[in-house]
Amino acid sequence: MKSIYLTKIREQNPLIHNITNIVAANFNANGLLALGASPMMSASEEEMVEMPNLSQALVINIGTLIGKEQKAMLLAGKTANAKGIPVVLDPVGVGATSYRRETVRQLLSEIKFALIRGNAGELATIAGETWQAKGVDAGQGDVDLKTVAQRVAKQYGCVVLISGAVDVISDGVQTATVHNGTPLFPKVTASGCLLSAVCGAFLAVDEGEHFAATLEACVAYTVAGELAAQGLTTQVGQFQIRLLDELAALSPEMIVQKGRINE
Amino acid sequence: MKSIYLTKIREQNPLIHNITNIVAANFNANGLLALGASPMMSASEEEMVEMPNLSQALVINIGTLIGKEQKAMLLAGKTANAKGIPVVLDPVGVGATSYRRETVRQLLSEIKFALIRGNAGELATIAGETWQAKGVDAGQGDVDLKTVAQRVAKQYGCVVLISGAVDVISDGVQTATVHNGTPLFPKVTASGCLLSAVCGAFLAVDEGEHFAATLEACVAYTVAGELAAQGLTTQVGQFQIRLLDELAALSPEMIVQKGRINE
Amino acid sequence: MKSIYLTKIREQNPLIHNITNIVAANFNANGLLALGASPMMSASEEEMVEMPNLSQALVINIGTLIGKEQKAMLLAGKTANAKGIPVVLDPVGVGATSYRRETVRQLLSEIKFALIRGNAGELATIAGETWQAKGVDAGQGDVDLKTVAQRVAKQYGCVVLISGAVDVISDGVQTATVHNGTPLFPKVTASGCLLSAVCGAFLAVDEGEHFAATLEACVAYTVAGELAAQGLTTQVGQFQIRLLDELAALSPEMIVQKGRINE
């Protein structure tokens, strides 16, 4: 395991434009700041053409759509594509309702994504697999997640990160798994959303190496989670605060030393 | 004091659909996760018919209405009624403006609620009593809260929970008071909203025993607050984090042992 | 350094109406509660005429405009002007896009503000100076901030607070600098927004002494930050929680003793 991009984030302090939801907005902005990036949370249709010209990456999260954000997402996504900055999709709860499925279908058809980051249920839905999703939670099903990741990656020409107890990353050719993390992650709301935002920061500085950057982002985030969870059992409140502390304290050395990946 | 429903929440992990506000969204989702329930925060009109079919309870909170949520509330509420899942109303700051009063009047006339949870000022307003409300805070007045709770419960055929230093619960026939809690609760924003969401989780698993479930919810939440406040004086930040920790650590035994109720 | 207004806030518990964004809403409400004020977060156009009649100050924050808030801001601002309560403007990221510049231009032309609180980049933009802003962050430029503060204060007949490593406060005649603070402030999202809200609470009780009240607000907030940062290096999560604790624990004596100002 190498660490290339964390240092670049701290050096370049990239501006990450997030179109996100009312649950994740504060936590994601704080997580990006802790990491060393500069968050910009905006979904105003009126500034979606200018914003990608100021930013180094765009993260689209469909968590709490109330209608107007959808237009903003399409506009910002297309402008980001035209400018050539990476766009990350977090298809929150896409399996839950037909409205979410249709929203994601439209985003995937009109925007070229660099990365899709979701849980098993969300990616299974995008892959067209049968899956018992449960709201925005992962739910359960019986599909091979590596196959799902590879198939979706090939179909949309992007990197896919399926996060869970084991994280699966694929660009359709290379596939890797990350074995870091803690059971406290799914007990903190928007911790998946924050991983998507963190990936946005890594992709912002990767000069096109999206697979390697996603892998490092995933290890960085899950190692920070492991460190934050040390000595904790059920303390979900403390975990959430410590996660921000550990993202700020994280060093390339910790990523190299603690990362547990299979490529 | 018995504890029946906390264990059921942990076993069944019910999906609680929250239509809530930008202040409470993150804290309430984390509180529900800590407790053992599964939060879904959505106010998209487009999915309000599907969402109640996936959920085991609906919590409607009028905290920061910006127009579109109102339609979503009515649609989700009616669908939840048709499906037969319990619906909780949190009439945040209903006494503050005529817009809030009219919103709550309409919700109460078109949706059948299982529970109305508010502070003294909010319930006094619904009961038509004179009360000096102060924004979203309780304010002050000189009415007998038991009488208010009973009257509102009878009028709307639901359980009423008036929270404050002493919490009053009534279904119009039975009335109980809960004497747990801490003065730090009103110093944390959305701590009332979270109580409403927690009640939603208890009602989701109660098989129609709404009075008993509300009573246990109220004791569970206020006991968690007491435990969180131990050793604290003015540390409102730490209290907020510890409250999440204690909701996660709470056991049926603690509810039985520490609950102080008068029935 | 004197402390006059903190005690008045605790005695009068003023209601502060905030039209704010999805990132800051929860943190600002908790910060105001910690300080001793009573927050009301609402952007519903339908109650913007009634709300200023209940409140002692209005804080307008343009952080995450999604269109409808703008009408609400104008309506609430004009009503607040008519009633005579102080109005604070936080022009978040005004330099970032033409939409934000136009929004702020309109607010400044139609509403009389008591205070404009922003970072160097935001105030330089309002002053018409060349400045390299970076999203919502301060960015960098080469202007004399005292001159900027004085000029904007004169132009709009209000107090200006430019926050940064050194905070500059001017009403066009008097100018002061505050030298308290911690490098952890810019690592916590919405910490600038919260300073604006805190200023709102001080102005709510100042009986027209806006310069003195802004000065005390700024010292109070930055001293609380210093105390919160004691013993911390990179722990941005803990800092955020401790800041709330310190705002609640803050005394007039600490303001007098620890305030470092140049007038």
From TrEMBL, chains A, B, C:
Highest taxon, organism lineage: Bacteria
Signal sequence range: none
Pfam families to which the protein is assigned, alphabetical: HK (PF02110)
Positions of ATP binding: R117, S163
Cofactor(s) named in the record: Mg(2+)
Catalytic function, reaction form: 5-(2-hydroxyethyl)-4-methylthiazole + ATP = 4-methyl-5-(2-phosphooxyethyl)-thiazole + ADP + H(+)
Pathway info: Cofactor biosynthesis; thiamine diphosphate biosynthesis; 4-methyl-5-(2-phosphoethyl)-thiazole from 5-(2-hydroxyethyl)-4-methylthiazole: step 1/1
Protein family membership: Belongs to the Thz kinase family.
Role according to the record: Catalyzes the phosphorylation of the hydroxyl group of 4-methyl-5-beta-hydroxyethylthiazole (THZ).
Name this protein carries in UniProt: Hydroxyethylthiazole kinase
Species this chain originates from: Rodentibacter mrazii
Gene name in the database record: thiM
